[in-house]
Automatic annotation (TrEMBL):
Any one GO CC term of the record: mitochondrion
Pfam families: Rhodanese
Protein name stated in the entry: Rhodanese-like protein
Domain of life the protein comes from: Eukaryota
Gene Ontology MF term list: thiosulfate-cyanide sulfurtransferase activity
Domain Rhodanese: 62-163
């Protein structure tokens, strides 16, 4: 019975970032107790943590080796975002980084981030960006960063693109 549930779990398409991550946790029935074994994917490594000043430097001095990715939904991105960022909404598109280069470009209208580039994720408060970082690692990305303060921190610090906050009219 456990094998049947596990097979069903692994064949079910993922609909949320949390479910995609959970697919890599297996359960084993031992007597009346159940043990969980977490896989040793590269996702076990911690992401590089970015602070406001680090992201501000990326915005003011863009480079070809680092991409800033806003994982909020398109309406949130359209309302306001950190300049130079690309929108890859993780809640509605959790499979985005698993797509082929061609399918990704068809869906999002820009080139899929290469796996050798540093990808720095942010959202509104850091929850979705953390899930996106884990999914990126599962998809084979090795240079993964998180701006954990995300949009709320950016706005609080008056970063470029905000309409309020310190240093803004």
């Amino acid at each position: 019975m456990v094998a049947t549930r596990a097979a069903a779990r692994f064949s079910t398409p993922c609909t949320t970032p949390q479910r995609a991550i959970a697919r890599h946790v297996t359960s084993v029935q031992v007597g009346s107790a159940q043990q969980r074994h977490h896989s040793s994917f590269p996702s076990d490594r911690r992401s590089k943590v970015y602070e406001f000043k680090d992201v501000l430097s990326l915005v003011e001095n863009p480079n070809d080796s680092t991409l800033l990715i806003d994982v909020r939904e398109p309406a949130e991105f359209a309302a306001n975002s950190i300049p130079t960022s690309l929108n890859v909404p993780i809640t509605s598109q959790p499979d985005a980084l698993l797509l082929s280069e061609e399918d990704f470009e068809d869906r999002f209208g820009f080139q899929k981030p290469p796996r050798e580039k540093m990808v720095v994720f942010f959202c509104k408060a850091g929850v979705r960006s953390s899930a996106a970082a884990q999914l990126a690692k599962l998809a084979g990305y090795t240079k993964v960063g998180e701006y954990r303060g995300s949009w709320l921190d950016w706005e609080r610090n008056g970063g470029p693109g905000t309409t309020s906050g310190p240093g803004q009219p």
